[in-house]
Each structure stands twice: as structure tokens, then as C-alpha cells.
């Protein structure tokens, strides 16, 4: 795999001294991370953060753009970079599922460094002319399915579960990817599809003759949310105020997961991680408005009780800030144990595993489920 680097530095800042207050945050001269490709939100965030890090601390962020989940995660796995500004695939890598249920992967020792928890949301985008008012109304309707993207597919599956539905209850229409499934609404090939509220195509749907509507998933419907998170454990309730067909003054009850997520591996130096988080917190005002959605990295927005264990360095900083709680520590301990169970079961499995790729993944998923259940953990993915 060929990699191309982008070095990010603020113009004119090469000779700028670190400001008062920055001296107690020691950082490497260069920090390397992989991220989404040029033109993406993740890459724009990297530029904004990189400019701040250079001007305040003299540190250069070297970004390795990747076009897909594997090309972003591979440099972290092989040590080319120490961090990845990734999407939800980083969680799947930690779980050893979907693309990562393969011989060259397996569960990875992924740890969260900092999350971007924005004002956008995720849910079901529907054509306003389809007569669909609730998730339950999707029964018998045409629903887009992005067969080449497990992350998208499982999100829609979870939303169907919110209304106690499955793919068997709808007319699934297959598309090659996420954006194409949304374009299916424009083309009147489907009535609904999973979407992030800020995806560009949504604005086209809103202005089209079909119009756009979002289906609500209110947090107070606890039974529905239990079904939802039983399929997609990484989502949380969220009041969404950003996106087409959404009035910022009247946010909609929908869902969210952090995106992007700055991640590293468990063995990464604790002090370095702590100082990176401290630097992002101290320099937040310098980059929060420099790219759309960059304000999502605010330290007070972090979802401490999530599905991915935190880096010890992040935990150290959260404790300094008085954010860390007994509940967060209990969740952290459980997730660290889960990660150990997964990695140990993989190491026991992989040497005698089937050679056939499909048989390998099927066997691993069974072994994985048995190991998690034996250790008292939820399986989620089978």
C-alpha cells in the first residue's frame, strides 16, 4: 500500500514561540495520524487542529489520508502512525467484526483519545411524499440498503429494530454504497435510507419535489432504545439541530455517535496522550471555528460512558479536569476486560483457523460470541 503524507502547519508560524501557559504541555515535534481523505470533515478538522498545534506548541501534525476504513486503520496497525482520526470502523476494529474478522486483522487494542460530538445526528431520512411519519411506518416500504458498507447496513438495521422491525419487514433495495442509497430517494427508487443529517445529498432531497423528513427516535421510549442499541451499541440519544429539514430552534430527538474519533492503541505513551488531549483543550478556541464541526471536540462534550475504552492518558486528563466519574471508571474497567477477552480468544483461535476466508470469519464469530458470553459480556455482533 502506497501512502502519501500531508504536513500541516500554519503559514507564518514557524518562528512563533509557544505562548504563556503552553510550556507545561510537552509534545513531540511531529505527531503522525491517519485520517479521512482530502475534502472530508476529518481532513478539514486535521488542518484546523494542525494549525493550532503548530502555532501554540511548535508541533507539526503529519496527516496520512485514507480513502476507506482499511487504508486509515492499516497505518495504525503497522506502526506507520500512532493515531487515527477515524470513524466508527475504529470501534469495529476493536471488536474484530465485519472487515476486521479477517486473518490479517482480528480485534485491535484500540483506545479513544478524544471524540468529536457534534450537533448533527443520524437516523432515517425519508421522502416527505412517502406518507411515513414514524419508524414503524417503514413496514412494507422501500428502504435503501448499502450492501458494501457494513457500518451503514448495521445502522439501518438498528433503526428498524427501534420499531421492532427487521429487513424482512421492509422492501430492501440494494445499493453499492451510502451516498447511492440516499440518491435512491431522489430517484424514487426507495422511500427511506439511513443518513447522517449533514450529508450533502440530504440538501438535494430537501429541495427536490419529494422533499425530506426525519424520523424521530425519542430517548424516553426506553424499550425501543434497548432494541436499537442491542443491534448498534455505539449510538446514543441526541437532540439534533443541524441539517436540512431541521429547525435549529426545535431540535429533533434522534441519535448520534462520535465522528470523527481520535484513537490510538493501548500501548501508546500515557503522558503523550494526556498532553495531546490537554493541548486540544487549551487550544480549543483557536481551532473550533476553523472548520465546520470542529467545535465538536470540546472537552465537555465527551461521551465518557461509551463503547470504546479510553486511553489511559485521556483518563488522566479527564480526572484532572474533574470530569471522570465512578460510573465512567466502572465502564472503562468493563471495556478493558472485554478487549482482553477478545484479543485472548483471537490468539487462541487464529493458528488452527480455517483457510477459507468465509469459513474463517464464520468460525471466528462463533468463537468470539462464546468467549464474550463466557466472560459475561454482551455479544452484539454474531
Automatic annotation (TrEMBL):
It comes from the Bacteria. It holds the Pfam family NMT1. One of its GO terms (cellular component) is periplasmic space. Keywords: Receptor, Signal. It is found in: Periplasm. One of its GO terms (biological process) is alkanesulfonate transmembrane transport. This is TRAP transporter TAXI family solute receptor.
Amino acid at each position: 500500500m502506497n501512502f502519501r503524507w500531508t504536513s500541516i502547519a500554519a503559514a507564518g508560524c514557524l518562528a512563533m514561540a509557544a505562548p504563556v501557559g503552553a510550556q507545561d504541555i510537552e509534545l513531540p515535534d511531529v505527531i503522525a495520524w491517519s485520517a479521512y481523505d482530502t475534502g472530508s470533515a476529518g481532513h478539514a478538522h486535521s488542518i484546523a487542529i494542525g494549525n493550532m498545534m503548530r502555532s501554540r506548541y511548535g508541533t507539526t501534525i503529519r496527516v496520512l489520508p485514507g480513502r476507506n476504513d482499511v487504508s486509515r486503520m492499516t497505518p495504525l496497525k503497522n506502526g506507520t502512525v500512532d493515531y487515527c482520526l477515524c470513524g466508527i470502523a475504529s470501534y469495529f476494529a476493536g471488536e474484530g467484526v465485519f472487515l476486521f474478522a479477517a486473518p490479517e486483522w482480528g480485534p485491535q487494542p484500540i483506545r479513544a483519545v478524544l471524540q468529536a460530538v457534534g450537533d448533527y445526528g443520524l437516523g432515517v431520512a425519508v421522502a416527505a411524499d412517502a406518507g411515513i411519519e414514524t419508524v414503524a411506518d417503514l413496514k412494507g416500504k422501500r428502504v435503501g440498503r448499502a450492501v458494501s458498507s457494513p457500518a451503514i447496513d448495521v445502522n439501518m438495521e438498528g433503526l428498524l429494530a427501534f420499531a421492532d422491525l427487521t429487513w424482512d419487514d421492509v422492501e430492501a433495495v440494494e445499493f453499492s454504497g451510502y451516498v447511492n442509497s440516499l440518491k435512491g430517494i431522489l430517484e424514487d427508487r426507495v422511500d427511506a435510507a439511513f443518513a447522517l443529517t449533514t450529508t450533502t445529498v440530504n440538501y438535494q432531497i430537501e429541495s427536490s419535489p419529494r422533499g425530506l423528513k426525519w424520523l424521530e427516535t425519542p430517548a424516553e421510549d426506553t424499550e425501543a432504545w434497548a432494541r436499537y442499541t442491542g443491534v448498534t451499541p455505539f449510538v446514543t440519544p441526541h437532540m439534533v439541530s443541524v441539517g436540512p429539514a431541521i429547525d435549529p430552534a426545535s431540535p429533533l430527538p434522534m441519535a448520534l455517535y462520535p465522528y470523527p474519533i481520535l484513537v490510538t492503541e493501548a500501548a501508546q505513551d500515557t503522558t503523550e496522550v494526556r498532553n495531546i488531549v490537554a493541548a486540544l483543550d487549551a487550544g480549543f478556541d483557536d481551532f473550533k471555528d476553523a472548520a465546520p464541526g470542529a467545535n465538536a471536540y470540546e472537552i465537555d462534550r465527551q461521551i465518557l460512558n461509551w463503547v470504546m475504552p479510553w486511553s489511559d492518558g485521556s483518563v488522566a486528563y479527564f480526572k484532572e479536569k474533574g470530569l471522570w466519574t465512578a460510573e465512567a471508571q466502572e465502564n472503562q474497567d468493563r471495556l478493558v476486560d472485554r478487549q482482553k477477552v477478545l484479543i485472548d480468544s483471537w490468539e487462541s483461535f487464529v493458528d488452527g483457523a480455517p483457510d477459507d476466508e468465509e469459513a474463517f470469519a464464520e468460525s471466528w464469530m462463533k468463537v468470539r460470541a462464546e468467549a464474550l458470553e463466557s466472560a459475561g459480556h454482551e455479544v452484539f455482533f454474531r
